[in-house]
Design brief:
Elements: H1 3-15, E1 20-21, H2 46-49, E2 59-67, E3 83-92, H3 97-111, E4 119-124, H4 134-146, E5 153-154, H5 157-160, E6 167-170, E7 176-177, E8 191-201, H6 210-213, E9 226-239, E10 245-258, H7 259-266, H8 276-288, H9 295-314, H10 323-340, H11 349-359, H12 368-371, H13 373-398, E11 404-405, H14 407-417, H15 421-431, E12 434-435, H16 437-451, H17 455-459, H18 464-468, H19 476-500, E13 506-511, E14 516-521, H20 528-543, E15 548-554, H21 555-560, E16 574-580, E17 584-587, E18 602-611, E19 614-621
Parallel strand pairs: 1-2, 4-6, 5-6, 11-12
Antiparallel strand pairs: 2-3, 3-10, 4-8, 7-8, 8-9, 9-10, 13-14, 14-19, 15-16, 16-17, 18-19
Helix pairs in contact: 3-4, 8-9, 8-11, 9-10, 9-11, 9-13, 10-13, 11-13, 13-14, 14-16, 19-20
Binding site for Zn(2+): 486, 490, 588, 592
Catalytic activity: tRNA(Ala) + L-alanine + ATP = L-alanyl-tRNA(Ala) + AMP + diphosphate
Subcellular location: Cytoplasm
Amino acid sequence: MTHTEIRDKFLKFFEERGHKIVPSFSLVPENDPSVLFTTAGMQPMIPYLLGEIHPEGKRIANSQKCFRAQDIEEVGDNRHTTFFEMLGNWSFGDYWKKEQLNWIFDFLVNEAKINPQNLYITVFAGNNQIPRDTESVQIWKELFKKVDIEAVDLENAEQEGMRNGRIFYYSDKKNWWSLSGTPEEMAVGQPGGPDSEMFYDFGNTEQHDFEKYGPACHVNCDCGRYLEIGNNVFMEYQKQANGSFKPLPQKNIDFGGGLERITAASQNQSDIFSTDFFETIMEAVKKHVTKPLDGERSLRIISDHLRASVFLISEKLRPSNKDRGYILRRLIRRATMHATLRGGDKYPFMEIFDSIIDTYKDTAYYSEINANREEIEKVLHEEAQRFSSRIREGEEHYLKFGKKISGEEAFLLEQSYGFPIELLKELAKRDGKEIDETRFRKEKEQHQEISRAGAEKKFGGHGLLMDTGELKAGNEEELKKATRLHTATHLLHASLRKVLGPDVHQAGSDITSERLRFDFTFPRKMTPEEIKRVEDMVNEAVQKDYSVTKEELSYEDAIKSGALAFFKLKYPPKVNVYSVGDFSKELCGGPHVSRTREIGKIKITKEEAISAGVRRIRATVE
């Protein structure tokens, strides 16, 4: 069964069960500065998981374009890609585990034609807050029984292996899902929950390296025998400021299944690059890249990176040295290096580009890549051409290096020829050379220190540059205005918590001499009355002319004292705690006024959503 057929069957299957089919969201998240790309199908659904009403109802399904830059180093094995499609279905407070597990088992076995004998399941073993998921275990046992399989549930697979088991309990490091990862890694306000994952056994037992992968092969093993093809998340909890969890207003189902991986299981291909998804693309790569840098691995990297680049460019992204543009540039340059080094003068991307277009030509779901074909081709050509000439010069210098490449030499290659350290590492690995990465990092840090604006010296560090925007240290009047606004954020934070509740927590800020911008966790729009109460409370604190005092404490003592912290930051062992009378107490690096009357009158100019569960206030002072 082809990937196109599986995608179509999935959407039709859930449409017949009352789900509205919605388009894929953009790869570039809207109004969400916390992430560069859409990394999971559930990411755009967070508001509805938190309780907002979806305009299409309580049952939704789609195939979502996703991109994960963190997987870039893994590309080249049998299962990792940067760009992928995620088949998804959601229940926003409607059906629960029994319906979901019955439906997804039915789809995999009867629609995608996956052999149930090769299916294995993992479930949440429970922790000190969330109970063990025995309900899912019982449902799975009944489903396997229908296809004459006795599903034995077992513990400790990582240490003891499979032991003829079918269902396996794992900790919250494996069977818990949120955008940030484990329960400990979750941000305040994020939704999450235990999950039940499905794995396909390709049976290639010879590839388990005991020294590399551990004492036993099991479904969550990294050796590649078992491939995760889908994840049923029971999204029913929300992270609290004190680290605990409270139930969401509704129980949600969040299913995500990698289309590339489900296709591999359906076709019983242990390598996703051998499926029809990549068949045409890989043929083009093999035809036009005759001397790849690293054999078969290079061919897979080129196939994946160019496919991802095509989709990113179709969304109007362009190569640059910042944020998303940097990731796109890195993809194209990495593909260029693997295609052209010691493999001739021609970078064969245009022929490979055509094969990517052909792969999706019958997929109306992603019509944008065909609609933007000429522009995509132009961007790819220009970036590859630009880097190809530089990579030749860089390689000439690289070849002069000895077996041990100094940090200074590595930094020279990056600065002068655009050779990122990860590309240099691939060349060094191929040629048996060593790189002094510790010295490289020091060289890079020294360069960044020299380039950095003087604002950090003025303000005293740990996190302040994030709060000062484009402010320059040389303008004393601007610094004075920004100092007033910075202290105002402390009053604003405290007032929001007093009006909206203790679950409110800072999620970022940006300050110039003209205005402040303050982001905070909160699941809904503030009412006009709430905004007015917050504004009045801040101004009352200003008029009371509280003194602003600073105390230096260890981080642990500061938190014990009741001081608030911006938990996403990494603080030094000693921190500054600023208290505004008995009104506010926070970890901060300055700058601050000495008394609150210096701030002036605050005016909230706007309150808006910037991402799921995160709001933004803009304000000025008079």
